[in-house]
Every structure is written in structure tokens, then in C-alpha cells.
Amino acid sequence: MDILFQLLSSKNTIFTFDELLSIFWSTNTQTFKNKLSYYIKKWILERVTRWIYSLKNKEINKFELTNKIYSPSYISFFSALYHHWIIFQYENDVYLAYKKSDTRKILDFDIKLKCVKKDILFNPTGIINNGIYSLAWPERAFLDTIYIYWDIHFDNISKLDYQTLLELLPIYKNANLEKKVKTYFIKW
Fold this sequence. Notes:
Layout: H1 2-9, E1 14-16, H2 17-23, H3 29-41, E2 45-49, E3 52-55, H4 62-69, E4 74-75, H5 77-83, E5 94-98, E6 102-106, E7 109-115, H6 118-121, E8 127-129, E9 134-136, H7 138-149, H8 162-168, H9 175-186
Helix pairs in contact: 5-7
């Protein structure tokens, strides 16, 4: 029951195959697969997608799930902007900065992957990693969104720190992006 206690007391809502392997302390893959199968049959764990599992009847954190399916990535664009109250329109889909663009349906939402250059994706500046998922700061999400979508309306740019935006702009190496950002703050 030590395993069950570890699972239930974990702050994670999603577990990868490797994470479960370390929790089960198993060196034999077949023994581990048998234990995993047992926990699924006893309705303790359920398979969400390939190599990804959750506790049965526990609410899943969508940000955690998407970050574990697609790694390396971070939550940005409309998902992060809504989380930080820069936009007010809720969208059930989760937007990730990733190495390629794609859309994937999982459970009751879509994962929308948006391709950003590797220099941007692997730069940790302006990204919060809380140990469960990675989320862009409001300023980083704002810049990512303009970088991909260009002409867009934001509901509450007063929450953005202009100095932080200026410090993050060099990540993108894009003079047009700098000009576009300034147009948002001329009126403000």
C-alpha cells in the first residue's frame, strides 16, 4: 500500500510510464507492467493516452497533461494569457509552444501546438516551471502570441510590465516584432 499512498499523496494528477516505474521501484519491466495492469483493473489508475496514466476519478490538470505528452514545451498563447487575465475569453483548448505545429484531440479538449524556433523554445527566460508544468509569464505569452498571430486584440494589457517586455524581446530576434509591440503601448 506504500505505492498507493505515494500515488494519492502526489501533487501530480498525471503520471508517465517512467514516473510510475520509479514509484513502483521496479527493475524488471515485466513485473512493473503486471503491477500496472493490476492497478488499472482495480480502478486505481487509468490510461489517458499512450504511456500516460492518471488516478481514477481524480480531476486531471490539463496543463500538466499537455506538458507531459509534449516535451519540451510550455503553456503559452491564449491559455497563458487567459490564466494571467490578459484576455478574458475562456477557451477549453490548451496552447503550447512546441517544435512543430499540430492539433490533437484528447479527452474533451484540443491540444494546439504552435511552432516556435528552437532558440525561443529552449530559452527559459520568462517561463515559470512549478515542477508540474511550464507556463509562460504574461509578457512572454503576449510576445509569443504576437509572434505567431501578429494582429490580435488583448483585453487587459495594463497587467503587462513594459520593461519586462523590452527585456524579453531579444529572445525573438525580430525587429518587426519590436515595432509591433510598441504600437500596443503608444495608445496606453
